[in-house]
């Protein structure tokens, strides 16, 4: 009797020990949270997995994966760190947390910090965590909060030129993408900007600017109404130049609710250097055999900047002096012709010739004007030369 009683007591004791040491059939209940739940591509979010162990576990793991998004969790995120004691590794489409030993009733909290890749387009995804015993037993995944990813706001600044002549207008176009669907402000500033420019106009595309004003003593800003989130938005500032200025670095910003969303810089220089092309009349000649007049002149750039984009326009009054076709690259007609001219560095000089055939029926006195057009040339007084041609017959033509 005593033997049976002792045996029964031992059996009960062993059963009690086993009941304490072995986990129940259910696994620990997990809670999954994330912070922040709204992230910009290229920034971090931390997923926290917490719970209380319902038994003693050795060699258990938690797999962290996601649904939604542009692909598997590991395809658009990069592992940064994990906290709370586990060893974290990337395994295919998920991140695996190898857990330290757990005892019954032990509270745990593990964190996994991930960077959403900078190239990730706006999307949402939902983290999920699943507990596995060392033998691979599991009761299913626990769902965390939805995490919203937005593409970062970008801003580019494109001045029409980085070097502008004093007195000329300068247009700077700011282009923002992925801006919140809210009213926003575009701003250009530098310590010196208002000392050598004034605000001309500004215009927005596709949403028009509502105001365009000076910004304190450092620059200019334009307010734009809300447009579709993620769409491109251009604002073009046109500035009048009022003084020469060495290279100036200007900061461009786009703000929403007074908060800077993106910034960039660009440089401009306002020069007080101008081309000044002086035209001097040469001596024209006439070939009675070919019945061609050759006009000659000298062009000298007496200015301080290169003369580029030049043209020469020939005007004959009355019409009918010449009959030959247009020169290479020229436009117009035989009495009013515009041709490209050579570029001239400061101090450079050229001596062009210009030959045309006298018309068969030409007779009388003609005035031939050559006007030399050079962008930004401030001195038109020396840009035109005039020849006078008298035609008596096809053999007798005199030009001075």
TrEMBL record:
Record bears the keyword Cytoplasm: no
Family matches, as Gene3D superfamilies: Immunoglobulins
Regions annotated as coiled coil: none
Entry keyword set: Signal
GO biological process, one term: carbohydrate metabolic process
Signal sequence coordinates: 1-26
Domain DUF11: 285-388
The protein's name in its UniProt record: DUF11 domain-containing protein
